Every structure is written in C-alpha cells, then in structure tokens.
Amino acid sequence: MHAFVVDLVSTLSTAGYLFIVSAGLTLVFGAMRVINLAHGSFYMYGAFLVSTIVGASSGARFWLAIPAAAVAVGALGALVEVTVMRRLYRSEHLTQLLATFALLLIFADVGLRIWGTRARTVGNPTPFGGRITLAGATFPSYDIAIIAVAAVVGLALWVMLTRTVFGWKVRAVVSDPEALATTGTNTNLLLTSVFVLGAALAAVAGGVIAPQTSVAPGIDQAIIVTAFIVAVIGGLGSVAGAVLGSVLIAAAETLGARYAPNWASTLIYAVLIVVLAVRPWGLLGAAER
Amino acid sequence: MRNLRADGGPGGLSRSTVARSVAIPVVLIAALLVLGEKLSVNNMLTLEEVLGLAVFAAATNLLLGYGGLVSFGQAAFYGSGAYLIGLSWLHHWMPFWAAFVLTPVAGGVIALLMGLIALRTRRLYFALLTLAFSELFYQLVNVRYSFTKGATGIFSVSMVPASLSMPRTGYYFTVGITCASLLVLWKITVSPFGLMLRATRENRERVEALGVSVYRHQLLAFVISGAFCSLAGALFVVYGQSTYPDLLNWTTSGEPLFMAVIGGMFSFLGPAFGALLYQVGNQYISQHTHDWQLVLGAVLLVVVLFRPDGLAGVLSVRTWRRMWARRGGRRVTPVDGGPPADPAPATAFEATEGAQQ
Amino acid sequence: MTMTRRNRPNKLMIGVTAAVCLTAAACGSSGAKASSSGGSSSGSSGGSTPSGGTVTIGDSTSLSGAIAQLGQTGLQGVELAVDDLNSKGGVLGKTVKVVSADDNATPATGASQVRNMITSNHVSALFGPVSSAVAAAQEQVSNQFSVPMFFYTSNDISLMRGGDNKYAFQFVPNTLMEPNAVADYFAKQATGPIKIATFAPDYSFGHDTVNGFIAALKRLHVNYQLVAQEFPPLGATNINTYLSTIVDAHPDYVFNAQFGNDLVSFTKQASSFGMFQKTKVIAMYDYDALAALGSAVPAGSIGFDRAPFWAMPEVSSFVQEYKAKYNAYPSEWAIMGYTAVQGWAWAAEKAKSFDASKISATLAGATVPTIRGNITIQACDHQAEIPEYVGTISATPDSQYNMRLYNSPVFTAPFSDINPACGASS
After folding, report:
1. Which long-range contacts (CB under 8 A, 24 or more apart) does B305-308 make?
2. Nearest CA to CA, how far is C162 from chain B (Å)?
3. Are residues C120 and B287, on separate chains, in Cβ contact within 8 Å?
4. Can you give the pLDDT at residue C40?
C-alpha cells in the first residue's frame, strides 16, 4: 500500500512538470505546425531566471519568481517568433528542426555567458519545505505543489482553448488561416501570442522543477527529447494528449524503477515504439496531411 | 548533378550523360588518389574521417533527399557497424575482415526490423520513432557495460589489422570502400527503384493510385540506407580504431542530416560535400573559438533560413539564372520566383513537369 | 513515369570546378603543413632547443554542456600555471602558449582537435579532457604522433593500465583509488554493525565504484550489512522510487557514486524525502558540489575530493593567486591541472628537450616539485602518487570561506594505502 502511494505521487508529480513543458511544445505545434527544439532553451532559461531571482534560499518569493521568469522568457519568445519562426511556418519539418536546433545551440552559449558553468540550487518554497505522511507513506510535500501547479496550468489551458475567443481563434488558425484572416483577425499577432504562451509554459516548467534538481548547463538538451516524446505519444497538437503522454511516461519511469530497474533507461523509448506501432499519430493526434 | 539521375531512366543513357557519369567519378577518384600522396598525415586522417561520413550522409540522403523521410535513427546503423567490429574484437567472435563484410548485412537486418514498424508512421512521428529505436540501442550499450565496455567504449589500435591502422593504407582502403559505396548508391538512385522512390516523395497518393506499394519501396530504401550507414560505421572504426556509445546517440543521427542540408539534399554528391564542409568547418570553428555553439548555430540558421537547398543549390545554374532573371525583372517560371525558404517547390516543380509529359 | 530531360552542362561544370578547387585548396594547405611539420611526428620542437621563441601546449576539454564546470575550471588551472611559468622565464627559455578547444564531450571531436593542435599549432604537450572516453581517443592520438599527454580530470584506470600509455601521465587519483580511500576513512569511523545502501548511476563507472567500495570494506573487515542497492539510469530526473526504497531499508549510510549535477539533484531530492534524518551519505561532495548545495549539504555526511584547497595548506599562495585572477576558489581540477603543467615543465627542463620519449623517460619514476609538494610518478603506470582527501561535512559554515566544508582534520588517504598494485587489477 505504501509503495503504491509513493509511486502514485511520484508518477503524478513527474507527469505534472512533463505536462507543463510538453503542453507548450504541443500548443505551438498545434497552432503553427512547427516543432520547436529551442523549447529546451526556454525551459533552461526559466530555471536559471528563477534561481537568479530567489537565490539558494527560496521562501515565498519563489511564487513571484515563476511568473516573472515566465514573462521574461515569453518576451524572448516573442523576439524569436518575429525574427525566426515566422519564416518557417511553411517550411519542411526538417528545416524547422534544424533552425530551432540552431537556436538551441545559440541559446546554450548565451546561457553559459550569462550564468556561467557552476550548478545552482533553489530551495523548496514556502510552505512546501517539509514532508507529508499518508497511508504510511512519506513523500516530499513539494511533489503536491508540482501536481497543483500542473493542474492549474492544465485547467487554465482548457478554459482558454474551449471557452474564450482567443482559444476559438487558435483552433481556427490551424484549420483555415485564410478564413480566419477574413474575419479581421490579425493572424500574425495570434501566432506570436501562441508562441509566447508556449515559451512561458516552458519557463514555468523549468522554474517549477528547479527546487528538485540542479540548475546547470545541459538541462536544455536533456529535457527536449523527453518533452518531444511526451508530445508525440499524446499526439502532436493535442493538449489533452499531452496529459495522457506525460502520465504514461511518468508511470513507465516510476514502475520501471520499481519492478524492472535493469530496463528503466530503455522503457520510455519502448513505450513510444509500442504506442506509435499501434497508433501512428499518437494517442489523440490527428493524421497530418 | 541532379540531372544525372533524372536522365537515367530505364530507356538508356544519352551520350552526354554517360560522359558525365564517367567524368565525375574519374575526376574525384583521381583527386582522392593524388591527395593520398600529397597530404600530411593529419589532413589525410581528416579526409579519411570525412570519407566515412560522406558514405553516412549519402546513405542517409537516400531516405531524406530521395524518399523524403527524415530519420533520426541513422545512428543505430552507424553505431551497430562500429560495435559489430568492436565487439567481434573484444570477444574474439571473428576476424576483422569477416566482421567488416558482415556490417552491411547487420545494418540491413536492423533496418528491416526497425522499418517494418517505423514506416507505418509519417513525418515527425517517423522521425521520433526512429530516434527512439536508436536511443534504445544507446541505452543498452551503456547499461550492458560488462559486455560492451559501457560508456568508456572500446579503444585499441589492434582492433583493425596492422596494415589498416597505418594512416596511408587506411586512407586508400577508405577511398576504395567509399567510392564503391557511392557508385552503388548512385546506381540505386538512377535505377527504376530510385525513380519510384522519388515519386513516392513527390506524390505519395498518386503512386499508390498506380497500385505501387509505397511502404515496400520505402522499406527497401530504409534497408539499403541502413546497410550503407552500418558500413560507414565500420569505416569509422578503420579511422578511429575505437567504438563508443556516442556513435549510437541521436545527436549522431543529426549529423548526416546536417551534412545533407548543408551540401544540398537534392543532389547526389551534395551530402558528401556537405560532410567535408561540416567536418572541416566544425574543426575550424572549434579551434578558433570556445563559443562554437554560437557560431555553428548562427551559420546553420542562416543556411536553413536563406539557402535551404544547400551548397549544391548555391552552385546550381538555376540559382544564378534566377538571380539574373530577378535583376532583369522577369521570372523564369512561376515556381522559381517563389520564396527560397522552402526547398519543396524546386523539386516539386520537376516532378510536376515530369508527370505532365 | 518518364522524367524530363533537362541538360544543364553548366551546372555540372560548376560542380566539377568546385570539387577541383576544394582538392587544390586541400593540397595547397597540406603542402604547407607537411613541410613545416617536417614529416617527423613529434612536432616542430623536438630535440635540442635554443632559448627564445615560444612553445605551445594544447588542452582540448569539455567547456560546454553538463560537465563544463569541470573543464572550465581545469583549463583555468592550466592557464594560470602557464602564466606563472612565463613570469619565471618560460620553459627551456621559451614562452609557453596555450591553445584550447571545447571537445563537446565527443571522442571523435576531441581526437581530431588534438591532432590539429599537434600538426597545426605544433603543440609539445597535451592536457587532458573531462570524459574518459574522450581521453582514450586522445591517448591514441598522443601515441600515434608521439606527444606527451597529461590527464588531470578523466581518471579511468584503463587509461593507464591496458591502454597504450607510453606518453600518457595521470595527475588525478584513478577510479580504484577513490573508493579505497573512502573505505579507509569509513573503517576508522565505523563501529558495530552498520547498515549500508548503495546508489549509483547504471553504467560502468557507477558499478565499478560501488564494487570497489564494497570490496574495500570486506578487505578492511568492516562489520556491515548491505540493505539496498539501487542503480537509476544515468541522468534520471525521477528518482523518487529509488529514494523511497532506500529510505525504507533504513540504512545508516548510503554510498553514492554520482558526481556533479546528478549528485546535487540527488541531495536535493533525498533531503525533501527526509533521508538525512537517520541516514548519512558518502559521496563525491567536492568543492563545486558543496558550493552548489550551500546550506542544503547534509551535515555529518562523508565527502571526498581529489584536491580540497582549504585542507591543503601547501597550496595557499596558489589559492590567493587563483582568487585574484578568477575571483573564485580553485576546484580540484584547477589544482590538478596546474600540477600537471608543472610536471611537464619540470621534465622538459630536466630532459633539456620537449621530445616525448625523453620527457616520458624522465618523468617515469621521478619525483617532481609542485605546488602540492614533491610528487613521485609511479614508473609502472605513470600514475602520480597523490593522495585522496576524505572528510565529514561540517554542521556550520567555515568562518573563512563562508560555506560548509569538511570538519578538520581532513583525512588524507596516502597513495601507498589506496593504490592497487600494478598488475593486480583490470
């Protein structure tokens, strides 16, 4: 029983931050058919910005640092969208991958210049410094904070996409951008907004995971493959798919660690292979023409 | 160079095509042989590495430029070739030459198994599924360290016969294998199969409407590509006398794609020249600045944003004609006047034209 | 399907012309290089050397990515050593110059970089990378071109034993010395039956280190019980399950073979799990890890460091100099990089030559004066006979450095105690 509780919390908290990071990736893909590898840079910059703002002792300031980092990285995202991404919307996927990989390289070096090479740490924010005991199982209370943030982000995205004009336009721009333009919508502004939102989500994910890990160069490339896998398993462009994908990958990691430690490192790839062998467009993805 | 394969239909080759298809290999092979006498050891070894990568890039481009398939799993074949030789040496399975001859077979078999599943998916899903396969290999080699020597890899000069570990003989051997591989690959691209493969990229639905199995054509291309990538991995062992997990990592899969894009994926020799440019350029940059990521990233960004057809595109007559036409205020064709940001129209143009006849 | 015949002879000519141009360019540049390297493989500066001019050394190491901190600080140590040599008149009367490059932690890149350094920059010595796989690739090149190679960060024992180490020297304790040193220290502290768990990344280094530690405990007759062994994937971010398994086993100590960023992440998460209430960790809490963790370092845990400057009074003037130049305290990699350059310079002066064979013959078995005092180079495998440092992490910040370091005295495991005899191991 208590192993089950630990694994459940671990799965959900891992799924939580994976969801936040891959939701941004999949949202951008859904609106503009671009896969953005520089998403990893936005994630890393988010983590570094939060660590810069709060320092090693975190406290309650952490909860202000997260939106601050999201705004700063969102602004960077706007710059990237206007200068680079806009030229790529009608390109081949390979061109997009290479261009955004180039951005990933550039941001990695700029990051080294700004923050140096030494790892940083961020303390657990108030009031999540301690532990919770539930059904005989003890786990970090910050895990609950991650799950809560992910739930809030997920809910907000759902409301935004299904209940607002902005969300309606985002969905419309995928199916028929010309028709949308005739309604007087500024599609350029719309696409920039979506990209900014995606970048900000990456920064939130980086900030949220910062207290759990070391904030150091290289985390940009470490996260991007996993985020990509989650988004693809769920189906590119589907936010609900990102929820499924992140839970599936997190569960595979957690259960693999428990029951098949010798295969743990290969499991997420095996899951991807099986899912795509059965459903070539991901769990909730639509066939792409 | 594209017209070489465009001309090579089953109906026979024109005289000028024959002349050219003989001239280019002869000039290149002669140059490579002359270089073997002229080059310093360092430059010769650099060229030897480039030649192996040229096979890697050209074999990858069979999928990318001809089949329109972006595979991020090419490292699985490349690394398998290298590890087949490395593990054969480590565990005394078989002599080097036996392992070397087996590498394309092993690469082909792995590609067949991978392709059976991966080719059911398309585009980014295909890219990521192939990536997952190669990461599977990468992780297994790391984790099964008592069998593979793990993260440190296998390093020994005696992994290859003494004659091949000498720089000059190793170089000539690599020149021989590379030229033979490129000729075979070229023959494949101008064969009816190669033309059909190109057609599957240009218009998948139309090919299927003809009753041709796109899946089978792509699978065969995948197997051929896997075999030659694996051979390229074997050439890496001849050059480096080592094998290590990085050869199986997805970043290694990205390199031949880079090379193909830099050199031009719509020409047969483009990727091979891309290998030269990429490798030499990379060395130059990393020797002159610690900020190589910044410089490489900037160069790459400029290339894909402004010259997605690569070096071959820059060198092609059409580019110059188009520039001349622009300056003169008239357009050669409607498609040629389109934005250069997308490589697809240039080739789509040819295919449509072909189909109209 | 018939394809259009579109003859574009001009395009072809451009292609061939380009090929010929590239060929000619390669020939031209290679001619220059071949003549200046004189066909000899030992670079331009072998044999007897008149004073004046410059001599170049090369350092290809990891300057970006996850292990950049190790490479960057090590390179700083090398550069500072060179500054100091030059202020005292250089080596053999020549001013020393450093060329460096980022190997991107890729063996093929590191190997071609040092080859270029040898042939284009005519380096007389090479200084080592971070990754052991890159080190193995560079060692092959150093052999092929007969250039001495000094490792000061990568420390896989197979680099010096089993590999071709004719021109290679090791200025960092090797992978077997470390667990031995920790076990020695631990055996002195441990009383009664002790419950031990191990935690290591699932690859060769992790397993070797854990096995070495357990073997050393057996040899030292420590009364221990192994209650859990966990091997998470390298670079795993989700380690809760592994941590909960360890916490449930209630060990007194966890031996952890992680290092750098992974160790920092482990410590953060283990602390969230409350592991440190009853359990102490034994791990590579070196200066960089302690600095990154700050107050999150678990007091009473056991750390080891290859060269902790604060516990080495002999290097105090070097520390001041380093601090003045880089506005930071030197990592172990900086100290060992500095020492390695001193070893090379001493051998060149002694041999009166930069020739690899002469330097190698001079250094093997020799005793070299360095900032760390006299260091003997073991003749059989070219391993510098340096100790490993082990300590217990203090509960309060050090008054001088304002961060938590080791309680004094720091245990110095003598080389003779922890070195596996030549020929005894893998």
Report:
1. B305/A84, B305/A87, B305/A88, B305/A99, B305/B341, B306/B340, B306/B341, B307/B340, B308/A91, B308/A92, B308/A95, B308/B261, B308/B340, B308/B341, B308/B342, B308/B343
2. 9
3. yes
4. 35
